[in-house]
Amino acid sequence: MEKLARWLALFKKELRQISRNKRLIVMLIVPPTINIVLFGFALNPTVTDLRLGVFDQDATKSSRELIDALTSSGAFAVAGGYLSENEISNDIGSGELDAALIIPPDFSRNRQMGRTADIQILVDAVDSNTAAIAASYASRIINEYNQDLVLSAPRRPGSANQLIPSGAGKSLDRIKPNVALLYNPGLKNSWFIVTGLIGALLVLQGSIVAAASMVVEKEVGTIEQLLMTPAEAGEIITAKIAPIFVLLTADIALSLTVARLVFGVPVRGSLALFFVSGSLCVLSGIGIGTLIATFVSSQQQAQLMGFFVNPPLVLLSGATTPIEAMPGWLQPFTNLNPIRHFAAVSRGILLKGTGLDVLYPNFLALACFCVVLVGLSAWQFRRQLR
Amino acid sequence: MRRILAQARKELRQVSRDRLTLTLALILPLLLLALNGSAISLTVENLPIVVQDLDSSDVSRRLIDAFRSSLTFQIVELAPGTSPETPLLENKARAALIIPPGFADDLNRGKIAETQILVDASDANTANVLRGSSTAVIRRFGASLLKAEPKLPIKPNIRFWFNPGLDSQLYIVPSMLAVGLALFPPLLAALAMSREGEQKTILQVYVSSISAGEYLLGKIVAYFVIAFAEWVLCLILAYFLFGIGLRGDPSALFVCTVLYLLTNVCFGAMVGAAIPNQAAAIQAVQIVGFLLSYLLSGAIFPISNIPQGIRWLSNIIPARYYIEVVRDSMVRGSGWSGLWLAPFAISAIGCFFFLVAWLKMRRMQLEA
Questions:
Q1: Which of A17-31, A166-180, B20-34, B104-118 is predicted least confidently?
Q2: Of A36, A216, B55, B201, which sits with the fewest C-beta atoms within 10 Å of its C-beta?
């Protein structure tokens, strides 16, 4: 009972200290909001309006139809007509064009004779991701265009169409792939980024705030005063952590609200479960922060240490890029990252509507991190006090 | 001039005594580059896919083999009795291929055979890749079933320029070089400036004979020297770790690097002069310098993908111009022709930062 009263007194002291700190309150609201909005909008792989240079040596109705087919999808926009291959390659080289279409002079003649007409598409592949998507768009568009041409062509003996089996409705494709995009049919990348980023923000905020509030006592020297009180090291630490934890759980609500209002991220599963996993995430962040604080002696050092710890934590979490794209030897290590597990939980709950029956391994992992990190920092803290 | 150099030398000596900061200053950019270069990639391979083969015919097994031999996919067993959507929900597979009963019969009768592919689209970019490659595998397999290749009316020959292997590191490493240099040099400069304000050592400067402009220039020169060392180290790392060296005429890269580093140091000095509190100054550099350079400079996805409303912001971010320069010198190698705008844009932004920093310094002098 006496212990509890002591702890509550410490807790109240921390709470008062924090609520006086206006900058901390601002820090809890502004950076997460800015981060979610900026990341959600800026990290967008949707390929539209690629600048396409056209060198049409044929200049007939059928070549223009082909150009129309390519641009009507919205993926490509004609940036200009060219009169030589040289000019086009110069403009790709200087970055003025993203892609080029070269139609040879015999294009329409080959088409009329029923021969295959070759065209050339050059893609600036410096940005490999965009280039790969652009190429797959281009071949899909031309494939569909071919389909239309075959279906609308009059059947003539000896023409190309005869090779297509008659029963197949003259279609070029023998097998039809019906692709269904589940959970995010609009292919909104912001849903992927935002659901991953919430965990990263919770961990980062937790670690920064916790480290700062621990180091302040060290820096100003008030830690000695705290130690002279009858409170034990464990009590001091938990009383310090508790108000930060309460404040940061508000960030879970804040970031989810921003994600919903700005990007329309759905909530298909249990909201309560989301908050529980979010608090586990905050707690692991606080654990990381207090652990950092035990190693440093000043604010500046704490922040520089943060630079060492935080970027790898965020980058190697699959929060903003797929884990499958990381080098193979690195992938197993992402299992040691709380942000990775929270990303799986938040995508599961928000996008897929799954529950604890599927997500329990990630929950267990998050709980483990909390226990280990908070325990380790309390232990370190007590050791240093001796 | 002598006073500027003396100030720069004093600053460098101060930094070199602070071992921790110096080590961090030289190692952190390398760490960030190494980490970003290997971790940020969008080229996905071996994506797990489950197959539900309800036809179990010779043809359907050959279709599965076609998926197996593709680099993009990796076939994962579907436990008997489970629905193909379950592994997607459990994050055990990214897609499911369903071959309906009667698949082989349809093909034999010359009808169009159907297949279904369920894609976990929660990661939109990977879903797009999955959709593209799975339809390509099926289309190619369908064409291989025909006795003779069908004559296509139009055949596209697609060529990838500058990066035929579609290696995403060629895109990411130059960007991360620029982003790292947008973070650490201004961070150090901001720390140094705000420390003088915080500890009031700035008063000592005012009583000495050095003017505000000279003092500021001295600091900028000192941190430029450190930034340049960081740049050289990063280039060496890019060459040895990622095998990405310089291509073509390096003069554009050299000129723009000098301007870019000066601009970033000026930005740090400006923040430091405006905010006489080290912790707050770090926050400001991190949010403005790093976040904007990372997100709005075309470092990961092209600028044209950013929505119109915030796209204009990218024009005032120096990293946006510098990334183009680095990319050109490391990948395309086409020299000055596409880059003439970059040095002017970078220096204009740099001059603005310097001017504001100088005005702030003067104001501080009056207030002190």
A1: A166-180
A2: B201
Answer yes or no: are the C-beta atoms of A150 and A171 closer than 8 Å.
Answer: yes
Instruction: Tokens 């596409």: give the residue.
Output: B338
Instruction: Output the 3-class SS for chain B.
Output: CHHHHHHHHHHHHHHHHCHHHHHHHHHHHHHHHHHHHHHCCCCCCCEEEEEEECCCCHHHHHHHHHHHCCCCEEEECCCCCCCCCHHHHCCCCCEEEEECCCHHHHHHCCCCEEEEEEEECCCHHHHHHHHHHHHHHHHHHHHHHCCCCCCCCEEEEEEEECCCCCCCHHHHHHHHHHHHHHHHHHHHHHHHHHHHHHCCCHHHHHHCCCCHHHHHHHHHHHHHHHHHHHHHHHHHHHHHHHCCCCCCCCHHHHHHHHHHHHHHHHHHHHHHHHCCCHHHHHHHHHHHHHHHHHHCCCCCCCHHHCCHHHHHHHHHCHHHHHHHHHHHHHHHCCHHHHCCHHHHHHHHHHHHHHHHHHHHHHHHHHHC
Residue of chain A nearest B327, judged by CA positions: A126
pLDDT digits (tens, 9 = 90+) for B303-357: 877 888 888 888 889 999 999 899 888 888 777 877 888 899 999 999 999 999 9
**Interchain CB contact of B241 with A (< 8 Å):** no
Express as a percent the part of chain B with pLDDT over 90. 24
Predicted TM-score (pTM) of this structure: 0.81
Q: Return the residue of A nearest to B147 by Cα.
A: A163
Query: How distant, in Å, are the alpha carbons of B46, B47, B102 from that of B53?
Result: 20, 19, 11
Provide φ and ψ at B76, rounded to 5°. Answer: -115, 140
Size of interface A-B (CB pairs under 8 A): 327
Question: What residues in A contact B322, CB-CB < 8 Å?
Answer: none
State the Cα–Cα distance between residues B24 and B15, nearest whole angstrom: 11
SS3 A168: helix
Q: What is the ipTM of this complex?
A: 0.79
Residues 6+ apart with CB under 8 A from A364: none
Cβ within 8 Å of A, B 74-133: 85, 88-91, 94, 107, 109-129, 131-133
- DSSP 8-state secondary structure symbol assigned to residue A332: G
Chain-chain contact of B287 with A126 (C-beta, under 8 angstroms): no
Residues B309, A42 contacting (CB under 8 angstroms): no
pLDDT tens for residues B312-323?
Answer: 888 889 999 999
B139 touches chain A (CB under 8 A): yes
Q: How many other CB atoms are there within 10 angstroms of residue A333's CB atom?
A: 12
> Which of A120, A321, A349 to mutate against chain B (most B CBs within 10 Å)?
A321
Per the CB < 8 A criterion, the answer to whether A280 and A359 are in contact is no
Tell me which long-range contacts A158-165 makes (C-beta under 8 A, separation of at least 24). Answer: A158/A114, A159/A114, A160/A114, A160/A115, A160/A116, A160/B150, A160/B151, A160/B153, A163/B146, A163/B148, A163/B149, A163/B150, A163/B151, A164/B150, A165/B110, A165/B146
User: Letter for the amino acid at B283?
Assistant: Q
Query: Rounded to whole angstroms, what are the CA distances from B186 to A313, A329, B21, B87, B363?
Result: 23, 34, 14, 47, 21
CA B181 to chain centre: 12
Per CB-CB distance under 8 Å, the chain B contacts of A150 are 153
The one-letter amino acid code at B222 reads A
Give the Cα-Cα-Cα angle A349, A354, A357 (nearest 5 degrees).
120
